[in-house]
Every structure is written in C-alpha cells, then in structure tokens.
Amino acid sequence: MKTARSIMLLALVLVLASFAGSNKYFVITAEDVAFKVPDGFPKPVYDFSSNHPSPEVFILGRKLFYDPILSRDSTISCASCHQRLFAFGHIDHALSHGINGLIGTRNVPPLQNLAWNPAFMWDGGVNHIEMQPLSPLTNPLEMGETLSHILLKLRQNEHYRKDFQAAWHDTVINTERMLKALAQFTGLMISCNSRYDKYIRGADTFSAIEKNGLAFFRQKCATCHTEPLFTNNAYRNNGIRPDTALNDSGRGRITGTMSDNYMFKVPGLRNVERTYPYMHDGRIRNLRSVLDHYADPNQFDTRASPEMRRIGVLSKDQKDALYAFLLTLTDKEFIYDKRFIDPFIDTVK
Amino acid sequence: MNRPTHSIFAMATLVVAMLLSHTVVAGGRLVIDITNRVGPQVLSLDSGSYTNALAQPYTVSMFKYYIGKIALREKNGSEVRSEAYYLVNESEPASKTIVLEHVPIGDYTGISFFTGVDSADNCSGAQDGALDPLNAMFWAWNTGYIFLKLEGRAPASRSSGHLLEYHIGGYREPHNCIRHIALRFKKSLPVVEGGTAHVHLNADVAAVLSGKERIDFAQLSSVTDFHNATTIADNYATMWSVSTEK
C-alpha cells in the first residue's frame, strides 16, 4: 500500500517536472499553428504555403514580436504598442509612442486577421505582411533601428542562434527569415470567435437590441465595413477634418494622386470595443462619440466620401442599437489566446 | 565582415543558372562587365569633377542600381532569360561583374534587362540576396525597391549642403520607374560549349541627368519619392550602351 502511494507520488512529481521541463507554461504544437480559414471567411491574401507554419518558426516570431532588442535602445518591442489584451492595439494613446519618448503621427491599429489584408498601414503603403515590420522597425519615431544592427544583435545572441537553428535547421540568420517568422506569428492572429461569429454560426443568440443593431449596421455601415472582416479594404474619407498640426495626407502620399489625399484605409471593426481611441489619428476617444460623428453629416469635411453622406442622421435608439451590436464583435477567445502570451513573462522554470 | 558588403559581394559573384528554353546542361559562360561612366570618363566617386548639360559642376558620391531579368536574344529570334536581380554599386567593384553560367550555345544578337525591379518582385514579401531590404535600396513606408540611387554635390543645388540626392523607385502607375532596356550587339556574340563570352555594359551618369530631360540642379536637386521620379527614370532608360569587344 505504502509502495503504491510512493509510486503514485513519484509519478505526480514526474508529470509536474515534465511540465516545468518544457520551459514554457504552454506548449505550441503543429496543430496550434495550423492555418485554417474560418467558416464564412474569404480566401486569405497571404499564402501560408510560402511560409509554412511550424511551432519553431511561430515561437521565434513570437519572441521577436515581444523583444525590445529590436528597437535602437532596447526599450520598445512590437508588443509595446500592439498589446494582446487590446487585440494588439494600444488603448488610450491617440498616437503611437516610440523610443526616447517620441510620439508618432498615427493611431496604433489592432492586429487581427492580417492574412486577409491586401495592404497595411492606414495609408496602405505596405503591400505585404512580411514587409510590414520594416516600417515600425526603422521609423525614427517608433523603434528607430537599422536592419543591419538588428541582425547583428540577433546573430550575437546565443538564444536567437538556437531559435533560428530550430526554425530552419541551419545557422543562417537573415532579414527574410526574421520577417517570415514575424509574419507567421502575426498572420495567425485570427479573430473569428466573437459573439457575432457565434450568432452567425447559430451557436449563440442575440438580444433584440443586438439584432436591431446588426440590421442597422448592414443598412448604414456595411458598404465600407463589410462582413465578415468588417472592411472592404478601400480608402475613404470618413468626414473628419484634417489635423493641421499632423497634416497627414493619407493615401495620397502613397499613390501621388491628388484625389487620394485625406483618404485612409477602412479599418476592420473586430474588437472595436477594446481598441479606443479611434480614427487614424486617435482623435475620437470612445465608441459612442464615433457614432455621434457618423450621425452628424453637417460636421463632415467637404471631402467626405459619398458613402458617408448616405448614412444620414441616426436617432438615439439607432445609435444605441449599433453600439450594442458593435460590442458583439469582441472576441475574448482571441484576446485571451494563450499562444500569443508574452514569452518573456514565463514564470515556470 | 560587414554584412552588406558581404551580401553584395556574394550576390555579385552569384552564379545563376539560366532558365533554358530547351534542356542543355552545360552551355557556355557569359561574363558581363559593367563600367559606370560620366560621358566619356570613367566614374570616379568623390574625386571626379563633372559638369552637367547646363554647365553646372557636380561630384558623385554614390551610384547604385538594380538590373535584373537579363535576357539574351538569339539570332533565330528565341530568347534565354535569367530571373535574377543584381545590385550594381560603384563602391563595390565586385558588384560590377555579373557571371551567367550554362548559357545555351548559340549566336546572340542582343541583350535586354530591367533597370529596376519588376512589379511582381516588389509585391512578393521578404526576399534574400540582392533584394534583401538590408541593402538599403528599399522603402519601408511605401513598399517598394529603390531602383537607382545617385548622390553627390553640386554648388547649384539648393538643398542643405548643396547635396544631390536622387532615389528613384516605384512600380505603380502613373509613377512606374521600371525601365526595360534592350540593346543590340554590333556583331553577333557566339557562346560556345565550355567557352566564355564577354559583354561590356556602360552606364552613364550624365545620361541620368540629361538623357531625355536636362536636370537643373537649382530646380531639382533631390527626388526621393514619386515627385519627378519618372523624369529621372526616363533619363536612366537612356544611360546604357553595350559592346562585345574585349
């Protein structure tokens, strides 16, 4: 009897030791990183077959994403602005914050469903998910680094040498691999389990006000914020007047076409509850004020896109319903997804 | 070893198998030597003094550009093409020699290539080698390769430090700066089994500044985005000449 108990105790200790021995408090398997198109989603833009997901590459991407050594003075990581609990956006900062206390010119967008994005940044200037990190990494107002110095730091770091080796089975550490690892991590940030999604799949119910909100939304907002990604990926002027201090001409700066000036990418609205403040320069502090803006065409800039004028005046009840509906886009399964937790806060050794 | 230098060196000496229209394993070798010039003179960075078509003096501190998708035209009209890109940099002598291996035997009448990077290759994500953004020929904020950089100084320039800075790129219409260059050899160039053929390309900085439109340094001392980029691109489209003499 005593022997049996000792054996059980020993077995328990071994099981616990094996958890600790994994050196992560969660383990990433091939299944965890398999890319699946959620039901009802269109074909993704990003072709994962060119960057086949593997646990080792994903883990490397996650580490890079959370590691401040990617910035010039090792103070700012991707995750400094792109915070997991806010759908990888940054709440309460209108404009992004970078090294040396510098402040950027645009609101941090959340990161989700990026594999469906044909273009990145508020102006769509970046054309590929793998190239997107180059912008914040090298922008002097953000991470302020050079690619060559980042690679130097990675090559000199024995942990990264092991991680790159594990991911690619040789000793090469280069730009392409760094960018592909980041793309694998960020590309798998997929929000598809909000209450809205479950309602659409018949797995959840909506209250009367939420149903009304969805109906209004489809009538008033969905031309631009098209389901299921809640964006048509177009560039529009949503009626806010240009900030004369920032003087951000938006899409026009990219295309060099006058008529694109002051147009910005239509953002997806998933997790919109948790990504305040709003608009490309973060000028609107809360969601109700966003609805107030859209419901007041008299305040629009003269260059507002025609779709904006079609919204018309919204009643308080309509705004309340829209608000209730927008809250159903919060995806807690995504926000609390353990795969995306900061690996540097690993407490079990 | 300094990484950019290393990668540019590696790239320049990279031996690229040509895409063959028919199965030939061996073939010949083609060595392309590039000389950057200013009119009749060989370009000399920093120390050379030159004068543009408007009699404005200038010096050159940097001259680098992409060429890629080199194709050879055979006498019978067929074409063999390599998909590779090369970054030619005046300050990296090794980058001025491109070696193509396994060129199908034949009698070639001309060479063509892109100055710049084809639009598809501007949109295909992270790449290594010549197209590694590490080579500082890439715009992060408006994705795309910088096809050509020409920098220097000119007293007439109104930029700070009298700088000249032409960074030309862009693959989207109407600011597309990719230029396809097709040059004919004076006499046909035979590539024989196991042999080495030589092509000599000249790239003329003077043409970048005046090939089609004469650049007045007082008016246009810097181009670093789409503004005026195609003007310079139309100029650099005329910078090339070829010879097959040794």
Question: Which series of helices and strands of chain B comes N to C?
Answer: HEEEEEEEEEHEEEEEHEHE
Helix content of chain A: 25-40%
Q: Report the CATH C-level class of the largest domain in chain A.
A: Mainly Alpha
Strand order of the largest sheet of chain A: 1-2
Number of domains of chain B: 1
Report the major sheet of chain B. 10 strands, mixed
The residue-averaged pLDDT of chain B reads 91
Radius of gyration of chain A (Å): 22 Å
Content of β-strand of chain A: under 5%
Low-confidence regions of chain A: 17-23
Number of strands of chain B: 16
Q: Which fold name corresponds to the CATH topology of the largest domain in chain A?
A: Cytochrome Bc1 Complex, Chain D, domain 2
SSE succession of chain A: HHHHHHHHHEHEHHHH
How many angstroms separate the termini of chain A? 33 Å
What can be said about the biggest beta sheet of chain A?
Answer: 2 strands, antiparallel
**What count of structural domains of chain A?**
2
SS-based structural class of chain A?
mainly alpha
Number of helices of chain B: 4
Q: Quick one: how many beta strands of chain A?
A: 2
Can you describe this structure?
The complex is a heterodimer of chains A (349) and B (246). By secondary structure, chain A is mainly α. Chain A has two domains: 27-191, Cytochrome c-like domain (Cytochrome Bc1 Complex, Chain D, domain 2), CATH 1.10.760; 195-330, Orthogonal Bundle (Cytochrome Bc1 Complex, Chain D, domain 2), CATH 1.10.760.10. Chain A is built from 14 helices and two strands. In chain A, strands 1-2 form a two-stranded antiparallel sheet. In chain A, helix 2 packs antiparallel against helix 6 (158-168). Residues 17-23 of chain A have low confidence and may be disordered. By secondary structure, chain B is mainly β. Chain B has one domain (3-243). In chain B, 11% of the residues lie in helices and 43% in strands. Chain B has helices at residues 3-12, 119-122, 205-210, 229-236; strands spanning 16-17, 28-38, 41-42, 50-51, 57-74, 79-81, 85-89, 97-103, 106-115, 138-139, 144-153, 163-169, 179-191, 196-204, 222-223, 240-243. In chain B, strands 4, 5, 6, 7, 9, 10, 11, 12, 13 and 15 form a ten-stranded mixed beta sheet that branches. In chain B, strands 1, 2, 3, 8, 14 and 16 form a six-stranded mixed beta sheet that branches. The longest helix of chain B is centred in the N-terminal third of the chain and has 10 residues, at 3-12. The radius of gyration of chain B is 18 Å and the shape is globular. Chain B starts with a helix and ends with a strand. Classes of the chains: A mainly alpha (349), B mainly beta (246).
